[in-house]
Amino acid sequence: MAWDLDNDRPIYAQLIERIQMQIVSGQYEPGERLPSVRELAAVAAVNPNTMQKAFAELERNGLVITQRTNGRTVTADAERIQKLRNELAQERVNAFLVEMKELGFDADEALELLRKSEREKTVE
Amino acid sequence: MAWDLDNDRPIYAQLIERIQMQIVSGQYEPGERLPSVRELAAVAAVNPNTMQKAFAELERNGLVITQRTNGRTVTADAERIQKLRNELAQERVNAFLVEMKELGFDADEALELLRKSEREKTVE
DNA sequence: CCTGTTGTATTGTCTACATAATACAATAAT
DNA sequence: ATTATTGTATTATGTAGACAATACAACAGG
Fold this sequence. Notes:
3 strands; Arc Repressor Mutant, subunit A; homodimer; mainly alpha; 3-stranded antiparallel beta sheet; 124 residues; DNA-binding; 2 domains
């Protein structure tokens, strides 16, 4: 199943975000072996070069470790992963509040919309 | 003051979003005359062609009206603008919940983070 | 009538991104 | 030792986006 990629943003950037997400959400455990570049490229239906570019960035950030001829693993530093997860969450929260403010909703109104949306979803 | 544009997404797309935002948030009133392409391009510090492309899209969506040689105005249809505002807000709310879920936070936890972020801001 | 401003179109150039097609060195597996 | 798999690098090609530099027709304002 090819990954659901937006074509309004660089693919490699979306790959980075997606893999990062899979790591911080625990889909890949700390220290777990990752699929090879070619393998993941095939799964995501992108060019291996593009996947390679994404991994290079993830490695620069220290989130994945590369063993030259034996694939890659997620960093074993679970604390680091948790920290990243919290940072990402905080970013989303702040971005959301800014966007809603731009739309003319203050924090209370934004909260109210969220509760409403939640209620409607739990009904489904 | 050049607009704050991300270089990780097409500029014209960001211009569309920004102008749309200025309209639905009331910075431009319904029926109000908009700055010329060249003028806004200069303000935003982008190429006039790029601004033109953004306006063409906004016109296709019916949000702005073009008078061939006398500039553009915001649509006078205030109801349409309000509807768009609500749609955009709903989109943001849903996107936020999805993102937080991907990060492993359920709706209640997301709400809690939002409240916390709000409290910290009001303290400042 | 003239001039400046309007939206709009065109042509060329540059860059970033993505793909395709290979290639190579290192090493795990056999 | 051989083979397959790993990450990595290279070269070429195509496309989208952004910019620069003009150009033109339509019209508002003088």
